[in-house]
Amino acid sequence: MSHEDEYHDKLITLLEVIWGEGYMAPGGFGNVAKILKGTEPKSKRILDIGSGLGGPAFEMATTHGATVVGVDLETGLIDRANKRAEEKGLADQCMFRQVEIGPYDFPDESFDIVVSSGALTQTEDKEAIFRECYRILKPDGWISLYDWTKSDVPLSDDMRYWFKMEGLTFSLETLEKYKERLENCGFLDVVTEDATDWYQAEAHREIKLMKGELYDQTVELIGQEETDLRIENWRAMIVVIDSGEMRQCYCKGQKPG
User: Fold this and answer.
1) What global pTM score does this model have?
2) Nearest to 116 by CA among 68, 159, 80, 76
3) In what order do the strands lie in the sheet with 45-49?
4) Which of 38, 75, 83, 185 has the most C-beta neighbours closer than 10 Å?
5) Domains detected in the chain
């Protein structure tokens, strides 16, 4: 499956029902504040890697006073995000561009902050991305990530089954490996936080909503077969979260001044 078609319309609709309009990663509105904590984003220029539908970028602009450039691999998501930016009157503060895997077409030291929420989960060569982030960050600039990681045990059958249910291309690493990769690229004072307990509770809450008060609404939006498939997807995810194999993390580091 190519990057172009991984996020199809029905999956996007479900994610927005669960996580909020414009959001394609857990935590929705509140997660952006956690990612930006300590980076002083007001009046700063931010690169959002894996910007999706644009929800986090719009929040960074309206709530935190930043200017945001969002990049994503999928043309369809970029088109949707730019359209929403126009509709919200945010086109001057939030711009979205489709990119390919590889070096970014941005000058050296052109951003104050680089963020990503749940996007690098699907990136195989994370260190190459981090080196690009280092290049395009200004001195004293921040990289701040939220992502899904794994424990240090070999992948279980439960994890492989969840990958199959997700229908997405995953390349999970440990939180310790994230820290090591950022330090390899020159970032200082790298801080990591295991947020698994938080999302474990969220995931259980989400599947309860999907089976209960959101069920009829979701069936109406995407059909019963797709709804039931996604509930099974969530159940499979909860199995690997509860076992401790799939973990959530925050990771932040600063480029030297």
Assistant:
1) 0.91
2) 68
3) 94-98, 67-72, 45-49, 111-117, 137-150, 246-254, 188-194
4) 185
5) 3-150+168-196+247-254 (3.40.50.150)
